[in-house]
Amino acid sequence: QVQLVESGGGLVQAGDSLRLSCAASGRTFSSYAMGWFRQAPGKEREFVASISRNAMNIYYADSVKGRFTISRDNAKNTVYLQMNSLKPEDMAVYFCAATLGYYSSSIYSKRETYNYWGQGTQVTVSS
């Protein structure tokens, strides 16, 4: 089992940048494919980005492509989400997620792919 703790959220202005971090417990972090999701008030949780175990496969939602970058440091048990050119519509609680199970290009964006979730970190973007 892995525990995930997000950090790095905050209040920024439109156009600013933030880097979210997700620290994972345990010694087998490299065995987990990782994802970032977000949930705005009154909306369903939606996929943002995902990275495979060896970082060879990376996927983004169309809404963040070109602005956000997901990366991982297996030596530090951490996955990152660099968010640039933030927009008011990016405002949400951002969740880190992990899976030990089957992971492929057909399921990386599905919430049910991921077995473990963090508590989330709030990102607020003012216009």
Commentary on this structure:
The chain has 127 residues and is mainly beta. It is built from no helices and eleven strands. The protein has strands at 4-7, 10-13, 18-24, 33-39, 46-51, 58-60, 68-73, 78-83, 92-99, 116-117, 121-126. The strands form two sheets. Strands 2, 4, 5, 6, 9, 10 and 11 form a seven-stranded mixed sheet that branches. A four-stranded antiparallel sheet has the order 1-3-8-7, with no helix packed on it. A hairpin with a 4-residue loop joins strand 7 (68-73) and strand 8 (78-83). It is globular, with a radius of gyration of 13 Å. It starts with a strand and ends with a strand. The mean pLDDT is 95.
Topology of this structure?
Blueprint: E1 4-7, E2 10-13, E3 18-24, E4 33-39, E5 46-51, E6 58-60, E7 68-73, E8 78-83, E9 92-99, E10 116-117, E11 121-126
Parallel strand pairs: 2-11
Antiparallel strand pairs: 1-3, 3-8, 4-5, 4-9, 5-6, 7-8, 9-10, 9-11
Query: What gap, in angstroms, lies between the N and C termini?
Result: 40 Å
The pLDDT mean sits at 95
The best one-word shape is globular
The biggest beta sheet, please? 7 strands, mixed
Q: Would you report the number of β strands?
A: 11
Query: Which range best describes the helical content: under 10%, 10-25%, 25-40%, 40-55%, 55-70% or over 70%?
Result: under 10%
Uncertain segments are none
The H-and-E topology, N to C, reads as EEEEEEEEEEE
Helical stretch tally: 0
Structural class: mainly beta
Strand portion? over 45%
